[in-house]
Design goal:
Elements lengths: L13 H13 L8 H7 L17 H22 L3 E2 L7 H10 L5 E2 L9 H22 L7
Parallel strand pairs: 1-2
Helix pairs in contact: 1-5, 3-4
């Protein structure tokens, strides 16, 4: 989690807005009032690599926290068995991959750019996430009977 106190599930972070926008690009009925419900109902969740803020730590303590987070994430992967993982910070991608190997998890890892404050990053975030979201929404739509 960020040291700022902003939090995805409090709907007050840039990551929340970028993720909402990515989902809304696939499903126009999504808005601020229902996004987190859609997110949950589609089987999505966000978890942090390490339970305490590391973004204001010096590089060495930050690295130690990320390495410690690998064990925590590995246990979560064993328990939750997600189909895909999408690290939203490229700096933690190797730690996420390490946790996946430790957990013997074999799903897809989608490497996303952190959407941050730059529009080009938010556009790229939505572009990279969109194909997986299209598949997710398609898989969750009720099947219509043939004939």
């Amino acid at each position: 989690p960020p040291a700022s106190g902003r939090f995805f599930y409090s709907a007050n972070s840039g990551l929340y807005r970028a993720m909402r926008d990515a989902f809304k690009a696939v499903e126009p009925r999504i808005d601020d009032d229902n996004f987190l419900r859609w997110f949950q109902d589609l089987g999505c969740y966000l978890t942090d690599l390490y339970p305490k803020p590391v973004d204001r730590l010096a590089s060495e303590p930050r690295l130690r926290a990320r390495v410690a987070g690998e064990k925590l994430l590995s246990a979560k992967l064993v328990r939750l068995q997600p189909q895909k993982i999408a690290p939203v910070l490229r700096a933690i991608a190797t730690h996420v991959a390490s946790a996946a190997r430790t957990a013997d998890w074999r799903g897809e890892i989608i490497e996303l750019p952190y959407p941050g404050r730059w529009k080009r990053n938010r556009v790229e975030f939505v572009r990279v996430l969109r194909p997986s979201l299209l598949k997710l929404f398609d898989a969750r739509r009720p099947k219509m009977p043939r004939g």
